């Protein structure tokens, strides 16, 4: 992109220079043709080859009219005019080329812009979707906490009752019942209904 911009600048600068030089040439041509001494056409100047006008380069086109204008007559004026029209044609070509180039660049920029807009849109969608999901997760979390605490409402945890992990859960139940009636001294609950009794891993010691 950078190189492109620079090129366009350089082109516009050289275009201006050229236009300036052309204006100068036209002006000096007008002044000098009148007072110039008439000369024999054959002796004074050899005719320029026709091809020269076609292989016009900027340096030739601009440099040639000045030194020869004095010694040559009308013929040079007409060839100068063809020279200027060649320059004009060249500039017009260049202008249409630059226009085409800019048009193709604009198409590309539009493409990029469209893609960018699509991505922006998609990103917004994903963001809002993400937000929604996070809200859902947090509401589910709080629901789950509620359910867990509800399901644990009737849980009791006893530490320090002798036994192993592989004992039958009816043994565990029996141990808990005797612990309640004997150790805690609450015989009314000796046959308390226990839905399920199971061993938990000790928090501080591995058993
Ligand atoms: C890019 O697209 C947006 C939305 O269509 C538009 O507002 C903006 O002018 C465009 N920009 C260019 C540089 O084309
Ligand atoms: C209970 O603990 C004692 C002493 O630590 C041990 O001797 C006994 O075998 C244990 N009983 C059971 C059922 O594991």
From TrEMBL:
Position of the signal peptide: 1-29
Q: Which UniProt keywords apply?
A: Coiled coil, Signal
Question: Coiled-coil annotation: which residues?
Answer: 102-136
Name of this chain's protein: Uncharacterized protein
